[in-house]
C-alpha cells in the first residue's frame, strides 16, 4: 500500500457540520447526501452499493449489446441472443399468453395428488415456483461430498409472517387484489374463487413454515435423511413422483438434507386434505406468477405494481434494458463476468487486496490469541480455522462452461426454461463428484462479498473493489475503514453465531468447550438486546429483530473491530499523516460511515425489517462504533453524547 496519502478518501464537502459525530456518526457523514439525493423512481433504495451497481449495470449493458453481433454459436452470441429475446417487446405482445398455454393445459388434466406432485416436479425443472425448493451444496457433516437440500417454499409473499401479523394486513389485501387481477389477464374467469384457493393454500402452507430466526439455525436445519425417512415424513403421499418428474440423475435423492422436516409432514397433510381443484388453481398461479416478467407488458406491469410498488414503494418499473441485463446476468453471469474482468478490473487491485486480507487475518490471529474469555483448547481450534481460510479476490480461476445451454433470439420463455433446466442439470450433476472448490457463488460484476462456511472461504468480486469501498491510490486509513471492514466482516462470519459451528474444513462440528460457548453466547445475547431496542427512522412503529440480524451484526462488529486493529498494525508504530484536515483515525471511521450511506423508501424499510438478516444501514454504522473504544478516543465521545454507551454495556467478541 502507498506510504504517501494523495487523498483522504472522504468527501469532506458532504460532512454535515450541524450533526456532531459524537451524536450521530451516520448522519454527520451522510445526512447532507441523503437530503440532497432523490431515490430514482425505479428503485426502492439508493446508496453506495446501488450507485456502484448502476455503474456495473452500464458496463454489462455495453457487453451484452455488443454480444448481439458476435459470431453465431459462440458464448458471446448466446448472451446477445438472450438479451435480444427479452428486448423484443413487439414479439412478446403478439404472442400474448401463448407461451404459457401448454403448461396451463397440462394443469387442466390433473386429477390426483400424484399428478400435482409430478407437475410441480416438472415445473421445478422449468424454473417455476413450487412448494419445495431444492439446491445442492457440500454436506455440512461430510464437506468433501455434495448433497441435495430440500427447503420449504410455496409462498407468494416474502415470508410466513406476512400471512399472520397484523402489521401486514394491508399488504395481504393488496396481494389478494393482485392475484385477482392476474387471473383474468391469463384468460381465466371466476378470478375471485381462484384467488380464494391460492390465498387459502398459501396461508395454510405459511402456517407450516419455520420462522426466519429458526431457519438460520445450522444445527436444527441439518437433517440428513435417507429417502425412506423422508417418505415417512410425508405420510399419505409418495414424494417420489415429485423428484422423478425433475428427472434427476440416479441416486441424487438417495440421501438428502431436509431443512424443515415438519414442513414436509404439514405439506403432505395439505395435499391429501385440500381439493384437487384448489391445487390446480395454485399451480395455475405458479405458472402465471413465475412467467409474468416474460410475457406482455400488461402482465409485467401488473406484476410490478405489487412486487415493486406495493412491497418496496418504487413507483416506476425499471427500463426494459435494465431488466434484460438482470436476466442475462442471472442466466449467464460468468460469461458476462469474463469480459467484464478483462475490460474493467485493474489487476494491481488484487495485490493491494492480498495485503489487506493478510493484515486482517493477522489482526484476527492476534485478537483470538489475546482473548481473555476463551480457553486454550478452543483458541487452538479457532486459530486452526483462521489458518485454513481461503480468500478469493476478483474473479474465478476457472470460468463456468455454458456449452450445454441453448438459447434463441426469438423465444424468450423457451430461453428462460432452458436456463432453468441447465441450472438443475448442473446442480444435480454435482452429486457423486468431487467438491469443486474453485466454484464462485457470486459473479465478478456483483457489488457484494460473501463467506461460505462449507468451504471456509471469503470471496470479494471485482466490482466491489471501487470507491467508496476501495481505492488503491487513496490513504490506507480509508481503505481499512471500508473494504478492510468488509473483509473483516466476511472473516467474522466464520466466527458468528452460526459460522462458529463449522470447523476449519467446513464441517458442522462443535469444536468449542462448553464454557467457551457459554461465554460467547453471553456476548451475543447482549448484542441481540442492543439491536432489539433500535427503531429505524423510516419505520417508527417497528424494531430491529436482534435474533434475526445477530449473524450480520457480529460480522459488522467483528469486521470493524478487527479492521481497526489491522490499521493500527499497518502503521507499525508510525504516526499517520493528516490529510484533508483529518487524522488517520478520523479517516478510518468516516470511511466506514460513508460506505453505509443509503436513502430508502418506508415500504422497503418495513419489508427489509421483517425478512433481512442485515440491520438497517444507520445502525450498521452507528451501533457498531458505539461498541468500539477507538471510536470514543478518536472523536472524544463522552457521557451525555448520543453515541455514548456505558463501557459495561459495550460488547467485544473478537
TrEMBL record:
It holds the Pfam family Peptidase_M13. One of its GO terms (molecular function) is hydrolase activity. The keyword Zinc applies. Keywords: Hydrolase, Metal-binding, Metalloprotease, Protease, Zinc. The keyword Hydrolase applies. Its EC number is 3.4.24.-. InterPro entries: MetalloPept_cat_dom_sf, Peptidase_M13, Peptidase_M13_C, Peptidase_M13_dom_2, Peptidase_M13_N. Residues 448-651 form the Peptidase M13 C-terminal domain. Residues 21-396 form the Peptidase M13 N-terminal domain. SUPFAM superfamilies: Metalloproteases ('zincins'), catalytic domain. Its cofactor is Zn(2+). It is an enzyme of class 3 (hydrolase). Belongs to the peptidase M13 family. This is Endopeptidase. It comes from Curtobacterium luteum.
Amino acid at each position: 500500500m502507498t506510504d504517501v496519502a494523495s487523498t483522504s478518501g472522504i468527501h469532506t464537502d458532504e460532512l454535515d457540520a450541524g450533526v456532531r459525530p459524537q451524536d450521530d456518526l451516520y448522519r454527520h457523514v451522510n445526512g447532507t447526501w441523503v437530503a440532497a439525493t432523490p431515490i430514482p423512481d425505479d428503485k426502492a433504495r439508493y446508496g453506495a452499493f446501488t450507485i456502484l451497481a448502476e455503474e456495473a449495470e452500464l458496463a454489462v449493458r455495453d457487453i451484452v449489446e455488443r454480444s448481439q453481433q458476435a459470431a453465431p454459436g459462440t458464448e458471446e452470441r448466446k448472451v446477445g441472443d438472450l438479451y435480444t429475446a427479452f428486448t423484443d417487446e413487439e414479439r412478446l405482445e403478439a404472442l400474448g399468453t401463448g407461451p404459457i398455454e401448454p403448461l396451463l393445459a397440462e394443469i387442466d388434466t390433473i386429477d390426483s395428488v400424484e399428478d400435482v406432485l409430478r407437475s410441480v416436479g416438472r415445473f421445478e425443472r422449468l424454473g417455476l415456483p413450487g412448494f419445495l425448493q431444492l439446491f445442492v451444496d457440500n454436506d455440512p457433516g461430510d464437506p468433501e461430498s455434495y448433497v441435495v437440500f430440500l427447503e420449504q417454499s410455496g409462498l407468494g409473499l416474502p415470508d410466513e409472517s406476512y400471512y399472520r401479523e397484523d402489521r401486514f394486513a394491508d399488504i395481504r389485501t393488496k396481494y389478494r387484489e393482485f392475484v385477482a387481477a392476474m387471473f383474468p389477464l391469463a384468460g381465466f374467469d371466476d378470478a375471485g374463487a381462484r384467488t380464494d384457493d391460492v390465498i387459502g393454500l398459501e396461508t395454510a402452507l405459511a402456517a407450516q413454515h419455520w420462522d426466519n430466526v429458526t431457519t438460520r439455525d445450522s444445527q436444527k436445519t441439518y437433517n440428513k435423511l435417507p429417502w425412506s425417512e423422508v417418505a415417512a415424513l410425508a405420510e399419505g403421499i409418495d414424494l417420489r413422483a415429485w423428484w422423478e418428474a425433475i428427472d434427476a440423475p440416479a441416486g441424487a435423492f438417495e440421501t438428502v438434507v431436509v431443512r424443515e422436516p415438519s414442513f414436509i409432514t404439514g405439506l403432505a397433510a395439505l395435499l391429501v386434505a385440500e381439493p384437487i381443484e384448489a391445487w390446480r388453481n395454485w399451480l395455475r398461479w405458479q405458472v402465471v406468477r413465475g412467467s409474468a416478467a416474460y410475457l406482455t407488458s400488461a402482465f409485467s406491469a401488473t406484476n410490478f405494481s405489487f412486487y415493486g410498488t406495493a412491497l418496496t414503494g418504487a413507483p416506476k418499473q425499471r427500463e426494459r434494458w435494465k431488466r434484460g441485463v438482470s436476466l442475462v446476468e442471472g442466466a449467464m453471469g460468468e460469461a458476462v463476468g469474463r469480459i467484464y474482468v478483462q475490460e474493467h478490473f485493474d489487476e494491481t487491485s488484487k495485490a493491494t487486496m492480498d495485503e489487506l486480507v493478510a493484515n486482517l487475518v493477522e489482526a484476527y490471529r492476534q485478537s483470538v490469541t489475546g482473548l481473555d474469555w476463551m480457553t486454550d483448547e478452543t483458541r487452538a481450534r479457532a486459530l486452526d480455522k483462521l489458518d485454513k481460510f481461503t480468500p478469493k479476490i476478483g474473479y474465478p480461476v476457472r470460468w463456468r462452461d455454458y456449452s450445454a445451454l441453448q438459447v434463441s433470439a426469438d423465444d424468450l420463455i423457451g430461453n428462460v426454461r432452458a436456463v432453468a433446466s441447465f441450472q438443475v442439470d448442473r446442480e444435480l450433476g454435482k452429486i457423486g463428484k468431487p467438491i469443486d472448490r474453485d466454484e464462485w457463488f457470486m459473479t465478478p460484476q456483483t457489488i457484494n462479498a460473501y463467506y461460505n462456511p462449507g468451504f471456509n472461504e471469503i470471496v470479494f468480486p471485482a466490482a466491489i473493489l471501487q470507491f467508496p469501498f476501495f481505492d488503491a491510490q487513496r490513504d490506507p486509513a480509508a481503505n481499512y475503514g471500508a473494504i478492510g471492514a468488509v473483509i473483516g466482516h466476511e472473516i467474522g462470519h466464520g466466527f458468528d453465531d452460526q459460522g462458529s459451528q463449522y470447523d476449519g474444513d467446513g464441517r458442522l462440528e462443535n469444536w468449542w468447550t462448553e464454557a467457551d460457548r457459554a461465554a460467547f453466547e453471553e456476548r451475543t445475547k447482549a448484542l441481540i438486546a442492543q439491536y432489539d431496542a433500535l427503531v429505524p427512522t423510516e419505520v417508527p412503529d417497528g424494531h430491529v429483530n436482534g435474533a434475526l440480524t445477530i449473524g450480520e451484526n457480529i460480522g459488522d462488529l467483528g469486521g470493524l473491530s478487527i479492521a481497526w486493529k489491522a490499521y493500527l498494525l499497518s502503521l507499525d508504530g508510525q504516526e499517520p499523516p493528516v490529510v484533508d484536515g483529518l487524522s488517520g483515525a478520523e479517516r478510518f471511521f468516516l470511511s466506514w460511515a460513508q460506505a453505509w450511506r443509503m436513502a430508502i423508501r418506508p415500504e422497503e424499510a418495513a419489508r427489509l425489517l421483517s425478512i433481512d438478516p442485515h440491520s438497517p444501514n444507520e445502525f450498521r454504522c452507528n451501533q457498531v462504533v458505539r461498541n468500539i473504544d477507538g471510536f470514543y478516543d478518536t472523536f472524544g465521545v463522552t457521557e451525555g453524547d448520543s453515541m455514548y454507551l456505558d463501557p459495561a454495556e459495550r460488547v467485544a467478541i473478537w
